[in-house]
Amino acid sequence: MTAIRVLIVDDEILVRSGLGLIVGSAPDLEVVGDCSGGLAEEKVTQLRPHVVLLDIRMPDLDGISVLRRLRALPNPPAVAMLTTFDTDEYIGTALRAGAAGFMLKDTAPEQLVHAVRVLAAGGSVLSPTVARTVISGYVEGGGPDAEAAALARSLTGRELDVLALLGEGLSNAEIADRLFLGTGTVKDHISAILGKLGAANRVQAAVLANRAGLVRTPPEPGA
């Protein structure tokens, strides 16, 4: 099986080394390189990683600018933003720029490894303590609004059910259990939902679910 190629982008060498040791300890993951923000675009072009772990705050070139450059590349890698604070004001901007995940730098090693696998498979990830901030409408325009509700009306009844549970932060397997569906069916529904909503990933869809008023109760931390 081909190893999942990972690039780590952070301005602190010790952070890059620590993350590299954690990620590289998994037999199916390979750290192909690490660098500061200014070299990220060049490294991605050269090394073709499947996943990039990107610090959201860097002095030479901030993570949001790096993210936008990477997303503009042909066949861009999945990018997860690394942050120290679960209330980082840049989270909303990164979400709109196409980040596929948000991870706190103190995420447990096994959770970080799992997150890389999910990202490589085309999924999105949120550290539990970040999830509530993002999904409850941290981005500008948070809260129910007419535009989000209008987009949601383009979905079928079953797609609305799936979107509502997506908005609670549930995984595909959890949604399948709740709705008595197969995980493959849930995955198909989510693909259709993303296409109809024009969402880049399930995180954006989850935020829209909240803004459309589909999520009755915000998810509890760690949910």
From TrEMBL:
Domain HTH luxR-type: 148-213
Top-level taxon: Bacteria
MF term (GO), any: DNA binding
UniProt KW keywords: DNA-binding, Phosphoprotein, Transcription, Transcription regulation
GO BP term, example: regulation of DNA-templated transcription
Keyword Phosphoprotein included in the entry's annotation: yes
Domain Response regulatory per the UniProt entry, residue ranges: 5-120
Stated name of the protein: DNA-binding NarL/FixJ family response regulator
Species of provenance: Kitasatospora gansuensis
